Amino acid sequence: QVQLVESGGGLVQAGGSLRLSCAAFGSIFSINAMGWYRQAPGKQRELVAVSTSGGSTNYADSVKGRFTISRDNAKNTVYLQMNSLKPEDTAVYYCNADIYTSYYYVYWGQGTQVTVSS
After folding, report:
1. What angle do CA 99, 107, 34 make, to 5 degrees?
2. pLDDT at 31 exceeding the cut of 90
3. How many CA atoms lie within 13 A of 23 on its CB side?
């Protein structure tokens, strides 16, 4: 069984920074893409950033230049450094990973709340 464990959410003032972490545990053979999504109240879940196993990254236009995704493959961990936070970044942030055990499957973390006050 595979589990994604997230940490690092919290309350921050506008202009501040937070760093989210997500570690994958279990019988993992390999990990393809790892990414972060977010869901604000009353809105659909949206992609924030994704990192492929080949090292490429992709970001939502709304976070480009402010957020940075990175990963430590030795630790099966993905990070999201969030700078210059805005109130509209307030959401529950979910980690997502495409993991191969005996087959590929997309796993989700439990979510971590990020609240940015104005």
Report:
1. 60
2. yes
3. 6
Share of the chain above pLDDT 70, in %: 100
Q: Are strands 18-25 and 77-82 parallel, antiparallel or unpaired?
A: antiparallel
Contact 15, 85 (CB under 8 A): yes
107: its two tokens: 């796993």
* Cβ-defined contacts of 5-9 (< 8 Å, 24+): 5/109, 5/110, 6/93, 6/94, 6/95, 6/109, 6/110, 6/111, 6/112, 7/112, 8/112, 9/93, 9/112, 9/113, 9/114
- The dihedral built from the CA positions of residue 88, 91, 95 and 98, taken in this order, carries a sign that is negative
Please write the tens of the pLDDT for every residue from 3-14: 999 999 999 999
Dist CA 36 CA 88 (whole Å): 16
